[in-house]
Amino acid sequence: MSRLQANLLLLLTGAIWGAGFITQATAMETLGPIWFIGLRFAVATFVALPFALAEDRRAGKPATRGDWLGFVATGLALFAAAATQQVGLLTTTVTNSGFLTGLYVVFTPILTTLVLRKQPHWVVWPAALMATAGIFLLSGGAFARLTVGDLLTIACAFLWSVQMICVGTFAGRSQRPLALSAVQFAVCAILGCAVAATIEPISLSAVRGALPEILFSGFFSSGLAFMCQNVAQRYTTAPQAAIFLSSEALFAAIFGVLIMGDSIGAAGYAGCAIIFVAMLATELVPEFTRAKERSAAAA
Q: How do residues 234-289 score in pLDDT, each as one tens digit?
C-alpha cells in the first residue's frame, strides 16, 4: 500500500466516523447508550474475527501473553471512551461531540509526555491553550452553556488518547493490528452488554427500532473503520494519520447540520476553526521544523 492510498484510507475512516455520530445520536431514541455500545461492538467483533483469523494463519509466530494483555487493555480504554462519548450525546449536539472528540489530537502528545516520558514539540502547549479557547467559544462563549455532555465528550477525547497510545504500542509490538481490533471489540461488547443489563431496560422492540444504527455502527464505524485505521497507520506518518483522522470532526459537523438540523452560531464557528487549527499546528509545525533542520544539515 502506498502512502497516498493509506492517507485516502484514513480520510475514508474519518468520514465513516463522522457519519457514525449521526447513528450514535439517533439510536438512543429507542435504545439505551450502553446497550448500543455492547450491541454495536458485538457486530464489530464478528466483522473483525475472520480478518484476525486470516492474520493469525499468516503470522510467523504466535502472540505472546503480553500481547493479549495489551489487546485487552486497549479494549478497556476503547470501552471507556465509547461509553463517555455515547452518554455525552444525550445532552450535547452531534457537531459539538465531533469537534470535542477531536481534541485527542492535542491530548495525545500531552499524555505521551506524562506517561511515556517523551517530550513533545513546543507547539503542543500553545495548541492546548488554543483548544481550550475554542471549547469556550463552541460552548457559546459562556461556561454556563457547557453541558454535562460536552464535559463527558472532553473526557472521551482524553480516553481516546489513551486508546491511541495503546494501539500504537501493542499493534506495533505484536504486528497483529487485526487481532488487536477483534479483541478490543470483544472486550467492549462483553462489558457493554454486562453493564447495560444491570442499569438499562431492554426490549425486542427497542433493538428493532435501533437495528439500522446498530448494524451501520457495528459494521462500518466500529468494525471496518477501526481496522482501516490500524492497517493504514503502518504505511503513513503519525502526523499525516492524525490530520486525516481528525477529518471526522469536520464530517460530523457537516452531517450534523445537513441531517440532524444542528445549528452553529458565529462564535461556535470561530471555536471550531480554533480547535481545528490547534489540531493542525500540533501535527504540522513539528514536521516543518524537522524538514528545515534536515535542509540546514544537508547544506
A: 776 555 666 677 777 667 777 777 776 777 778 778 887 888 788 778 777 877 87
- The stretches of 89-232 forming alpha helices (DSSP H) are 94-101, 104-111, 124-138, 148-174, 177-199, 204-209, 211-216, 225-232
In which residue are the cell numbers 524538514 written?
291
Provide the residue range defining the domain that includes 238: 3-298
Q: Residue 157: count other Cβ atoms within 10 Å of its Cβ.
A: 23
**Distance (Å, rounded) from C-alpha 280 to C-alpha 283?**
5
Q: How many domains does one find in the chain? A: 1
Evaluate the CA torsion angle 230, 235, 238, 242 in order and state its sign: negative
283 φ, ψ (degrees, to nearest 5): -100, -35
Phi/psi of residue 105, each to 5°? Answer: -65, -30
Cell readout for 166 is: 495503546
pTM score, two decimals?
Answer: 0.80
Q: What values do phi and psi take at 285, rounded to 5?
A: -60, -45
Report the residue count for the chain: 299
Helices 238-245 & 247-258, crossing angle to 10 degrees?
Answer: 10
Side chain identity, residue 241: A
